[in-house]
Amino acid sequence: MKLVTKLTLIFLLLTIVPLAVVGFLAYDNGRRTIEENVFNHLSSINIHKEDEFELWIETNQRSLRELSRRPLVRDYTAFMSSENVSNQDEEYQTLYAKLIEEHFGPTLEEEGGFLDLSILRAVDGMIIISTDTALEGKYRESASFFLEGKQASYVDEINYSITEGELVLHISTPILDDSGELIAVLAGHADLAEMSDIMTKRSELNDSEDSYLVNKFNFFVTEPRFGHDFALKKATHTEGVDACLLGDDGEGIYLDYRGEVVLGAYHWLPDHDLCLLTEVDQTDAFQPIHKLRNTIAVIAFISGVVVTALSVFYARSITRPVDRLIAGVDEIGSGNLEHRIHIEVSDELGLLAESFNQMTVNLAESQQENIQLVAELKAGSVELERRVEERTKDLKAAQLATLSMMEDAEKSRQIAEAVSEELRAAQIATMNMMMDVEDARTQAELNEVRFRSLFEESPIALLEEDFSAVRQRLTDLTRNGTVDLKTYFAGDNQAIRECSQLIKVISINQASVKLFKAHNQKQLLEKFGDIFVDQSLEILGRELLTFWNGEMNFEEEFIHQTMAGEQIWTIVKVSIAPGYENSWEKVFVSIVDISEQKKIREAVLREKDFSDRIINSIPGVFYMFDDEGKFLRWNKNFSQVLEYSDEEIAQMHPIDLFEGEGKAIIAERIQQVFVSGQSDAEAEFVSKSGVATPYYFTGFRMDTEEKPILIGTGIDITERQRWENQLSEKADELARSNEELERFAYVASHDLQEPLRMVASYLQLLERRYADHLDQDAREFIAFAVDGATRMKRLINDLLEYSRVGTRGQEFDSTNLNLVLGRVHVNLQAALEESGALISKPEMPTVLADESQLVQLFQNLLANAIKFSKEGDIPRITVSVQDLGHEWQFAVKDNGIGFDQQYAERIFVIFQRLHSKEEYAGTGIGLAVSKRIVERHGGDIWAESEPGEGATFYFTMPKDAAAQ
Amino acid sequence: MVACGVTSVEQQPDQVTVQLKWRHQAQFAGFYAAVQQNYYADENIEVKLLPGGPTATLIDSVVEGGADFGVTSADDLLGARTEGIPVKAIATIYRRNPLVYFSLPDSGISRPQDFVNTTIRVGANQQVIFDALMAQVGISPDQYTISRDPGLDAFYTGDIQVSNGYLINEVLAAKSQEIDLNVIFPDDYGIHFYSDTIFATDEFLASSPDLTARFVRATIKGWRWAIENPVEAGKLALIYNSDLEVNLQVGMMEASVPLIHTGEDQLGWMRRDIWLGMQEILLEQGVLESAVDIDQVFTLEFLEQTDGK
Predict the structure, then answer these.
(1) CATH architecture of the domain formed by B99-189
(2) Do A838 and B1 touch (CB under 8 A)?
(3) Nearest CA to A878 among A908, A907, A849, A837?
């Protein structure tokens, strides 16, 4: 930006800103003052108009009241409204004329305020006399001014009368006879033009001043200044109206019904439910302040022009030398160091030009020096370049030499590696050769040693014995007459022992020593007889008999005893060596220890015995068969139930044990077991004699090494089936009876309602039609009757509601309890606001439930908590929820009056109350319904409390909500 | 002050079907306005308006579930209730019945008493109100002749002296021909019959109180808009039936305003006294055989949840 412009702007700013600030402050201040004045004025207009309006109403009311109290008016009215007078009657006509001419006419003419006056018969609201004859014979029996006017002087709301086709305001007052009995209502149709006049009368302060009335439904009731035919046809929602209809008085600047900005004051007339507004246009109101604003603007404009001119002139005088200075500097800058700046002025600018000139001289000198220096530098740099070139050459040579050296070194390394590889191969070959030599040498020695120790080190115990003495003894025995050796041995172990002692052991190997746990061969030879125990003697007896009978070999299990005294099981094989058949001199014995196998076998046997006992002790049948249906094992029950012998069962197929469809079921289930591992079935077992018994079978597949087998059990379910049938019959019966009960409750309460409605409705009719003919007692009796009917209706309704929990419930659906509580809150809004109750609740879960019933449940519990609060206390209610895994537990806790825990059960019973109905309203249904709802959802409900300590109601709700 | 409140959750709008009393026309402008001004949408309701017609069975449509709410006359509802059909009024739109009697300007007939020795054209459906009116002023059936002439030709030629008709139809049409008919209002003779009345079944009201409250609130708001903007409201009817004549619809809406809103009570409001009076007349006329509990017939519960205007 140029200096001239800048300076001009600065001067302008310095002038305008203070002017603007001062101007604005003056304007704002003035504006406020005017605003305040206008508002005050508007409010005062409102107050004034209200007074006028009230005065107008009051005057009209007073003249109406005065008219109604005139004895003649009362007498005439009394006569004319009596039932047995016809309006054709001569006296009627006379009185009618007198009433109109002497009373109503003058009032209308002299007092003003009313368009017409009418008398309405008290009994039915018919207009019997009116200054507007068109109205006579019409009825106003349900109009507020008639109904209210029967009691006292009344001012109706301004409304649109469809039959009169215009806006009307009725004022009414009762006409009483001498004894104070009501005979008629005197009604005046107020002249709304007068009211409009009050509103439209202006103070002349502002041209746009506008006053009007708006009713509580936002509709105009008088014509605003800028509207035509607005009354009760147009509604207005301006800021002023909306604030006013909230019952406030005030003022503000807002858009009016035309969309113009206005200053308005509004005033609420509570007695008439009307809002009185007076407004002026903002442009109009601020007219004076606008003049001030314009003056300030003109002054600002003129000052601006003057300041601009002055500042341009002054700025020029500054900028001219500066321009010259700039031109000079440009010249010097372009290289002309001979140039000199000529400025005549002697101020700072002159000095600056002088300094510039001096600086130009100095610049020229130093430029000369620079040129020399550059020349020198150029020479130096050529020398340097040359040197660098030389160095580079040397460096390249050195680099080449280094490279060739490195190539030589790599070659040597490769040769060395090849030599060492050859050396290593030669070493391995030598070592293998040496090892082969050594191996051959060791093998020869080893064979010799093993051959020598083979016999002695046989792992089997071997003995060589001589039985010749035994044979001699046996021969002696038979010869002495003991013919039967078998009998002889059987009776006497001692005899066998003696025989055993006759056996001579010739040689024994090391394995024998080890087997019998002897210290050495010598010890075993000396104490050889000790290896026989009583049991082994029996076997020895058999062995001897075998040989005696001419057999050469004997093999049997023995029980021996070691030198250490422990028993071992063995298999002993005894053979008479060939060639010694008649002398028994050489007998070979080999003994193998089978104690371990024996133990295992015994264990297996015990196990089998055990499993036999088990399967036989099973109360039902047990069986095993393979995948071809061949029975492998079964218990006694199995054969007993089926009446087949074990042999027969072994030949049968499982399917053979069933008949009819049972065969198909069982075949399919067997298949299932073999495929998927297990199954079960219910079918009738058919015995050999044809008896069918219902059974429940379960089967499992067991995979053995050879093939899969089926293990199964079955139990007799004859009893169970009988119980099941009985149970289902009982359940059906119960459901039927429940249903009947519910239907009964529903029908009963529904049908009871009908006659009750009859009673209530005819009582209502009675009250309506004959209210005027009934004395106080009769009215009271009717009230009692209506009250009783109402109470009974409530009881029946409650009963209906109770019965509907079960019969009219909705399907369960996913229900967000936060929404449920929200709904309850809305439903209980009135009670909550009235009591000021504070409810706190956590984030609630979503459950599977009947939403509307849960709303009812929470609503009952919360409403109860509010209802039974302590007088004077704010009810504080806490809703909480606890996750018990399979179900939710909810609690509603209050700080109310509580109850004695002994009543905790009773409160859930229908129509049970702890308090009289005068104390706390209600029929005692809420908790009973709550209980039914909770039970329908499969939960429990209970309460804990102490008198005066508040109460907590708990209920649970299963998560799967299986019950319906 | 209260810790629990309604969590605002984006929910699918509730679907609501309304059985209108007659074919689409400005008579239902408030419903149209509530749709067009999104008042229903603001309450998260999607409304379907079913037109009625000469063959429509309004109460059955609602009872059988074809519609959730219906619009019919109050006497229709009283009749249904007496027969044990559980329907209940929740708001009355036309609180002044537009059904009137009219005669030619120079006929000298300006009150029911003048009907003696005349021929009166009365629609079959409107006979009850006529009989009630005659009973109220003490004229017996032998003192006049009833005509069921379908058109108004005979009325304008003078062969029929009195006709019944609607303020917002026949009377309006005459006015547009610059004929200022004498109008006799049954309202002036104690015959107050609520006309278009919104109703639903007891069951629906009990099971969906929240939805009903929202529906009533939005509907009343729609009517409020319609009476404040009668010209625009009248034109809305053309959205539903483009064959309608726009000036007639606007005229109908403008003429309806005082029947809907008079400056007394809030929109839709019903007075117990009027209900009792209607029942009394219907009982006297033998239309109803027995009385019903009037509190079963209507409820102000839902109107009480509106803004009261």
Answers:
(1) 3-Layer(aba) Sandwich (3.40)
(2) yes
(3) A837
